[in-house]
Amino acid sequence: MSSAITAPSLPATSSPTPPHAPSPSAISAWPDVASLYGRFAELVGQPMRPIRPAAMQQVMGYFEQRCRASRQLAERAKAVIPGGVQHNLAFNHPFPLAFSRAEGAHLTDVDGNRYIDFLQAGGPTLLGSNYLPVRQQVHALIDECGPVTGLLHEYEVKLAERVCQHMPGVQMLRLLGSGTEAVMGAVRLARTYTGRKWIIKVGGAYHGWSDQLVYGMRLPKTGRMEATGIPRGATAHTQECLPNDLDALRRQLQWNRLRGGTAAVLVEPLGPESGTRPVHPGYNAEVRRLCDEFGALLVFDEVVTGFRVGLGGAQGYFGVTPDITVLGKCLTGGYPMAGAIGGRKEVMMSLVGGIGTTTRRAFVGGTLSANPLSCVAGYHAIVEMERTNAAVHAGRAGDRLRAGLEEIIQRRGLPYVTYNMGSIVHLQTSGVLLMDTSSLWKLFRAKDEAKRRKHMMEEMGAAYTAHGLVTLAGSRIYTSLADTDEVIDDALNRFDDVFALV
Q1: Residue range 280-294: average pLDDT?
Q2: Is the Cβ–Cβ distance between 42 and 415 less than 8 Å?
Q3: 33-128+389-499 — its CATH code?
Q4: Which of 115, 201, 329, 335 is catalytic?
Q5: Entry pTM
Q6: Which of 77, 200, 344, 468 meets the CB 3.0–4.6 Å disulfide criterion with 84?
Q7: Is 496 considered catalytic here?
Q8: Torsion of CA 123, 276, 455, 82, to 10 degrees
Q9: In sequence order, which ranges of 342-484 are alpha helices (DSSP H)?
Q10: 282: helix, coil or strand?
Q11: Does residue 345 have an active-site annotation?
Q12: Per the residue annotation, which of 109, 117, 301, 436 is the catalytic one?
């Protein structure tokens, strides 16, 4: 069996909690990273513990008997949509479910089945789905001017001002259409500002699907494994380092210095895949120091963490200020066109807009970027996050859920691992994203085993769904302001029922 990757230790000066964490914090305590990596190794180093075959037949019976309208719609979708889904979030084993209603902490499918919504659209709806106060403001805006004009609108200024007020590393903001677009723009901006080419990312991190960053995705050291259809030249200046490995990052920066230098180091501040491989609490500060030493820009991809781990994002929590910040998801409260690049003014002025400008600039654009609908939703979503202290309440719901899951796992004697960073809760049952890929031989072995573990994860996700729980790929859970104690306790009873089938 392959084992989970071991997290290199940081210098003894790393503190167990961030030095500048806001109070109250959306993350009540940083997980014990060294202990987690030990548990990851144990999980991946032993035989899988899937749902029993007889119990899995019962799970499949739920979809056959109670999800017939969804199945019919999924069959229709296959005829006109490649694979039957437009987005990976919509995939569900054995077929995608179609939903007709979303409100607060719950979803209802087209067959009338009700679920606890721990997907929350993949993370953006921190306030809960279809949040009424924001929806009312969007309706009013549409009545007044419609969703898009292509011209300057008051709310794009108000939204930018609000973001700059809260995010320590953001003095100016440029709105774009998605997190993927924003990362593309951030890389272009870094190269323009520094005059350098090399980009270093942390292996396993997901930064969207642009050509240059479909590299080392989900599993570290996999390079171009997912880069079908992408010319080698597109990733020729993209590099990856293992998570938490500061020595490897330093060596790469040193080598790049001999070849013109590094434009940027790109990180998810919680760790790759929203903390699936969590970083040590002092990691981001050490990366900041290395970037300063080698003249590289530090880019925080806060598409998931922006506002969800607090109004100041992960940079506010860790007390580390990046040069460039990428935002998405929560930025517009779940409404479309959620993407932005932020940073200090000196860097951001390379994104100056307009025709015929003489300033050396990185060209970005988008007809629907900064549209009134997105901006009014984003502004009022942030206002509501401020008023309700949403990130903290969602984080406490995540704490309650994680503690309950730990109790169930221990009581049932399962090897599963659960932990959380506030409202981002991880539940690892198959360990498919924790395979050790640190060498070519381990990578070769991991590819074969990953197929079996991926199938187990899909079956676990199906079992959760059949018990009224919608998660992200059966391994990640987003809590929201709508998740009361009653909702969490209901969910824990359902998880307990699922784990009884193992």
Answers
A1: 98
A2: yes
A3: 3.90.1150.10
A4: 329
A5: 0.93
A6: 77
A7: no
A8: 40
A9: 345-348, 372-388, 390-411, 440-466
A10: coil
A11: no
A12: 301
Answer yes or no: are the C-beta atoms of 487 and 493 closer than 8 Å.
no
Per-residue pLDDT at 442 exceeds 80: no
Following CA atoms 35, 39, 41, 47 in sequence, which dihedral angle do they give, to the nearest 10 degrees?
Answer: 170
* DSSP string of 206-230, one letter each residue: ---S-GGG-SSBSSTT-TTTT-TT-
- What band does 218 get if pLDDT is binned at 50, 70 and 90? confident
Residues 394/423, Cβ–Cβ less than 8 Å: yes
Predicted confidence at residue 3, as pLDDT, reads 41
φ/ψ region of 307 (left if φ > 0, alpha if ψ in -120 to 50, else beta) reads left
Q: Is the pLDDT of residue 13 over 70?
A: no
Per the CB < 8 A criterion, the answer to whether 457 and 474 are in contact is: yes
Per-residue model confidence (pLDDT) at position 24: 64
What's the token pair of residue 365?
A: 């654009």
Closest alpha carbon to 164 in 22, 20, 348, 369: 348
Q: How far apart are CA 430 and CA 454, in angstroms?
A: 7
What are 113-166's pLDDT values in tens digits? 999 999 999 999 999 999 999 999 999 999 999 999 999 999 999 999 999 999
Active site residue 115: no
In the numeric block, which tokens belong to residue 275?
């903390």
